[in-house]
Fold each of these.
Amino acid sequence: MTSRMVSKLIDQDDRFLGILDRLTTKSIDDYYNPYKLFEWPQSLPAAMWWMSPELTTTHGTEAAERLTQEQLYALSRHESINFYSLNVHGIRELLIEVTKRIHTTGFETPSEFFHHFIGEENEHMWFFAEFCLRYGRKIYRQPVGASVEIPRSHVESLLVFARILIFEELVDHFNSRMALDERLDETIRAINRIHHQDESRHIAFGRELVTVLFEDVKRTSSDEELKEIADYLRRYLTFSFESLYNPQVYRDAGIENPLDLRRELLESPARVEFERSVFRKTSKFLEKTGLI
Amino acid sequence: MASAGIDDVRAWILGRHPDRTTIAPDENLIESRLVDSLSFVELVYAIEGASGVEVDFDTIDIQDFQTLSSIEKAFFATTRIA
């Protein structure tokens, strides 16, 4: 990818420029102090859903039928801590990648918005980590080898921003539903609501940027290279989805043989439907642009 | 005598690469792209399943995952008969 070509494509794209302006203004107008915004009660009740049951990994499976209501509540608690932990790790990686690109050749025009993006993501990472540490007493770890290295190549920026977009859209599927779910405690609904508000800007931006970056890559890549990109993104979708199934979560919820449960859940018919619903909009976008 | 556990790990990797039938004990799994960052977590779970030992994510040494031989040494050595 030629960096100059990318800036040219962005600067000629009136639609993208208009969206950038609008999103930047909205970031400024909606600015809030996250450190003062939340109430953070001392504790949250254990005997209730911490995550919408339809969004938990056992929903609609035979495994769920073997568990008591109390165990299902506990599982939703640990799964919610895992979900926010995934946010913490995902945000760390995207902050590194966006910071590497701000005010460099090719990214002159979106750099203004990158400042808001980086600032907001840092704040999201703070409140997700705060929730995990206050109510879960931990952040679930990611093994070192899983922090993804993108191979240095002419498609690097495209893959980076496509991954950021996939991650944000996955998270937003959960946020948008949990923000409205009256079965959940208000603190849980609030962090999901606030994150959903900010992320809708980031997703709108991400879709535009990925479309422009792919336009350039399409021009300069062979069919074989385009197929490799599609294969990689399909694998990344699966990888992101499967990270919701964390054996450590099942272990913490007191389930024996957590790896067996994980395998059972990943192979269950409910998984196929769950994955399809999580990525319904994302897959449609990626297919429409020709990325997968 | 090789442990059965490492055979399970080898079978797991081969199961994801139908174009391959063997992996040499010293073949570098990462350089040969048999394992990459997107499949690394699954490899860790496969090792946990085969060894019955929980791997501590905080203390993972990436060197232990380079080859079947290094995986065997790090996670299955106690089951070997000297």
Amino acid sequence: MAAPLVLPGCAGGQSALDPAGREAAEVYDLFVVMVIGGGVIWLAVIGLLVHACRRRRRTWSEEGAGRLIAWGGVAFPVVALFALLAYAVWLMPSIRPWLDRSVPEPAMIDVTGEQFWWRIRYPAEDGMAAFETANELRLPVGERVAFSLRAADVIHSFWIPSLGGKMDMIPGRTNVLSLLPTKTGVYQAPCAEFCGASHAYMAFSVIVMDTKAYDDWRRRQAAGNRPGGSEGERLFAHHGCAGCHSVRGVTPVAGLGPDLTRFSDRRTVGAGALANTPENVARFIRNPSAIKPGATMPAFDMLSQGDIAAIAEFLTGRP
Amino acid sequence: MRLLPKEVESLWTLFTGPTIWAVHFLVCYVAVAIYCEKARTGPFTFAEMRLALVLVTLLALAGIVLSAWLAWRQWGFGSGDPPHDAPTREDRLLFQGFATLLLSGLSFVAVLFVAVPLVLIEACQP
């Protein structure tokens, strides 16, 4: 009876039980098979327990009991475990299509975990230039994408529950993961390896789009921001924001902190910490550590409210 | 003290199955690990190594079946029912035979479980 109330919790943009990619679907199938298998075995064992506890019992003959133990306690577990093991091992290559090395490394999307955000580099493709972005991944539906995964400081882990994974990001190593999104939508990806004080606030959005929208987005991203000469744009450079954050087309390349080019397209501020609104951007600028403990960006609470609001307006494109 | 006893009545036979299982596991694990590390320079292919390990597996299974048959014989081909817990020489022999038989069964299944990935995994992870 509780199932209809509880089961909706399994859906959503960050659930391995609501797959939107081929690898996640395989994991889901494995999960369903294991749950059903486990459930049937559990019911059988409980059935035997009830049978053993029944009131009026007729004693089993020693031979009958021995047969039950030999079949139910030896033969059945051996065969069932063998089948489940074989199924799981057989699925492995499709859950982790690491054998597919047809994509050369430079053509992969490069994702680097840093405390506590994600540096994302798209390669040049089909005449579109390479570019860097942060904390938001956009993917074309129905196309296999390969990621090269790195870490800049400590171990992080790359996991998009709806699409597949996870794969650790280890400093000094490049791990490769390949995914095939099958449904358009917006998904959430948390860092899946404890990486410090703001581990819980380290997430990125994944937006799976149809190919045309994806190509348009790539073109826009590669082109960067258009200089508008706004007050916020001037203050962004004047107060030193541009020393760490690039806004391509407007400021020189910095590369220390998250790239903020076309920030207005993003869904969140601070790698999934807050929704992307001018108020939240202002809050973040004023004191990043209040939102993300341990964040490397210093507090800019010495700036006037007006300056912070202007910078937030420049970034979000909204007053 | 002799390392190998004169008579069959020894605990050594009890460990035959598990020992074969352990050796088989080690051979498979080490062979695949070394092969994958040196895959590019190795003189044989993954398929050849897998075939060799399948042969090792068959050999291990044959060894375990042999040990099980010897144990079955020691147990008197199931002529008496367990538990053989009387403090007599005969019961000790029968008990050991029965225990060896069970351990052989366990080892047989364990060797099969170890071999499953060999059949289904296709190549080394880069």
